[in-house]
Write a structure and sequence with these properties.
With 471 residues, the protein is α+β, with helices and mostly antiparallel strands. It contains 16 helices and 18 strands. The chain folds into two domains: 295 residues, no CATH class; 132 residues, no CATH class. Helix content is 34%, strand content 20%.
Length: 471
């Protein structure tokens, strides 16, 4: 079931779930499936701290911004019909209905949980997604519309905008067919997502140049705008349901969710179309997230620093917490880490077994590029230490110890060595430009290797690998 907000003249006049917006009555209409709905617009916004009573249920609280941002979207739709000042948003005028979380997500379980588990479907099915920023962002939106660029001062305002760091807004934006930005209080100054995010990127480059900031200094200074940069990259290069679990987990590491379950449901909405089966609503959010990944045959969630399951045959599986990644602030490529779950172990495909060092010239060249190492870094130890500095800037939280291999350096989460049959494997499918996440395993006599640790590999990236069994 999906709920939409529609003008009363298009809905049932006897519907008890009605409320007034902009002097007009609106009703909640219910449809059995997304395929049954009329064209609709989804609204993306940050709730903020202030709450009010819902017009649909006085016992239920919602964001005090909900009605205001709904008014913004309705006004934008009317402005579109009038042809006034709306840029590249023809889809908006064709929408006869709206979806906004506080009014359209059912209040009670199991319907509420089913709806949260289906958010990716809802936003990818919408004809249009409107992101409504706060009043303080009006100048940034207006400048992007009129000048196709925004000023450095606009960047500083955007950095304080909660929409940028909210967990739900990532999947709401990257799943959209058409994305537009508008500021609360504006009637018609709306800019397409592509143009707005391009303006942000150009402004960031200018700001860095004007203030003498290199990439390292910028990354240390501006976490929220870096999150917006990541959103832009994923919006451009990834299609709905083709992002890996690891890619989405790394984006979500620094995003805020009001409720712990929102963190996982927002990630589900970013990686998969609805794959529901009976009983899914009874699963914990983290378990549901992993089940969805496993149905896609994507086991890249294994590259998390979360505690592990103590069930026999499943110590490779994360449990508890938020599933932080080994390297959160770096764009990752690859759609999945393919594998098969067996009763006693997990088989991962296309894993490359690293060969113990010393590091060769090809590996050292890749590491130096990643680390942005100066000519003064002459020894492999110097380059490894500079690499660790770069990893720290990107959010790596391991001990800082490293293992040397022929093609690069492996930085495990905890102190480790290669004694007692321990070896390292790195993913060939989930990767960054020079390296990728990997695992430390202990050789097992039956060919099923024991999971020991996760880590980050930096060096010459493997192009192919072999099947590895771990338990």
């Amino acid at each position: 079931m999906i709920r939409l907000i529609e003008p009363v003249e298009f809905g049932s006049s006897t519907n008890a779930l009605q409320f007034d917006v902009l002097g007009q009555q609106w009703a909640i209409s219910e449809y059995p499936e997304l395929a049954d709905t009329p064209p609709f617009t989804c609204i993306s916004y940050a709730w903020g701290k202030q709450k009010m009573k819902s017009p649909l249920n006085p016992e239920q609280e919602m964001s005090s911004r909900t009605i205001r941002v709904l008014e913004v979207a309705i006004n934008a739709s009317r402005a579109q019909e009038d042809g006034a000042g709306v840029q590249k948003t023809a889809a908006l005028g064709k929408s006869s209905a709206f979806w906004i979380d506080a009014l359209c997500v059912p209040a009670d379980d199991p319907h509420r949980t089913v709806c949260l588990q289906s958010m990716g479907d809802i936003f990818s099915s919408a004809l249009h997604v409107v992101a409504v920023l706060g009043n303080q962002c009006s100048a940034a939106v207006r400048n992007a519309v009129k000048n196709e660029e925004i000023a450095p001062d606009d960047l500083l305002v955007l950095e304080q905008e909660d929409w940028i760091s909210r967990a739900w807004t990532y999947q709401e934006a990257v799943n959209s067919r058409r994305l537009s930005f508008v500021a609360e209080g504006e009637r018609s100054e709306m800019v397409s997502g592509h143009d707005f995010l391009n303006a942000v990127m150009i402004a960031i480059d200018k700001y860095k140049s004007q203030n003498g900031l290199d990439d390292d200094a910028w990354e240390k200074r501006s976490g929220r705008l870096r999150s917006l940069e990541r959103l832009l990259a994923d919006y451009r290069i990834s299609d709905y349901a083709t992002r890996s679990a690891y890619q989405v987990m790394s984006v979500m590491d620094e995003r805020f969710a009001e409720r712990p379950e929102d963190h996982f449901y927002a990630m589900v909405g970013s990686i998969a179309a609805s794959e529901r089966v009976d009983g899914d609503e009874d699963l914990t959010p983290s378990e549901y997230f992993m089940r969805v990944c496993e149905r896609k045959a994507d086991f890249s969630f294994i590259y998390s620093t979360a505690p592990r399951d103590d069930t026999v045959g499943r110590p490779w599986r994360p449990t508890g917490g938020r599933f932080p990644t080994v390297l959160p602030n770096l764009i990752t490529f690859g759609s999945s880490e393919r594998g098969i779950v067996h009763a006693t172990h997990l088989s991962l495909e296309n894993m490359y077994r690293l060969q113990p060092g010393p590091i060769g010239s090809a590996g050292l060249k890749s590491v130096r590029w990643f680390a942005r190492a100066s000519d003064s870094c002459t020894s492999s130890e110097d380059v490894a230490l500079r690499t660790l500095e770069r990893l720290r800037t990107l959010g790596f939280g391991g001990t800082g110890e490293y293992l040397e291999f022929e093609t690069g350096f492996f930085f495990p989460q905890s102190a480790s060595d290669l004694s007692d049959g321990v070896f390292a494997v790195v993913s060939s499918d989930i990767h960054w430009v020079t390296g990728g996440p990997g695992l430390l395993l202990r050789t097992g006599s039956s060919g099923i290797h024991e999971f020991c640790d996760t880590g980050a590999f930096v060096g010459k990236r493997p192009k192919s690998g072999e099947e590895i069994n771990l338990g």
